[in-house]
DNA sequence: TAGGCCATCTGGTCCT
DNA sequence: AGGACCAGATGGCCTA
């Protein structure tokens, strides 16, 4: 990740102050990289009789979007670092990060409410709802210490 | 090989 | 007008 972050910052800086040229397409990735596609007119263009309608150049916009995505990923990483897992460096997908963060917050809240760290979620649910109709298992309650 | 996950591009919309 | 944000499309990588 570190390498790619440098890459993103570099390409963002580059694309921001240069207008032309370099294809910024990194290794992976999808659609037509910042190419001449940013000037479309031509053949399939809608209508215009005199042809050659130029779209605004996309390089700068694409670079901004990459930089924005980079920041989003940095936030995911920061959030991920707050979630205890076993093993500690286990790879989590983005959706897992969000879901686990939610249940971890719930777990911490239950710990605060009950004043115990021994299966607080179960206890909290019991205290607030009476005898539970459904037993829900909290991942973080099950963790061995 | 199918499915999940991800990065990137792109066009649209909203905001400053 | 330009930037931020978002969602859809696309294609690559990885794993079961």
UniProtKB/TrEMBL annotation:
User: Locate the BHLH domain: which residues?
Assistant: 56-108
Superkingdom of the source? Eukaryota
| One Pfam family, short name | HLH
Q: Which GO terms describe its biological process?
A: developmental process
Ranges where the record places region Disordered: 13-66
Coiled-coil portions? none
- Compositional bias (Gly residues): 19-30
User: In Gene Ontology terms, what is one molecular function of this protein?
Assistant: protein dimerization activity
Protein's name in the database: Basic helix-loop-helix transcription factor scleraxis
| Species, as recorded | Drosophila kikkawai (Fruit fly)
Its organism's taxonomic lineage begins at: Eukaryota, Metazoa, Ecdysozoa, Arthropoda, Hexapoda
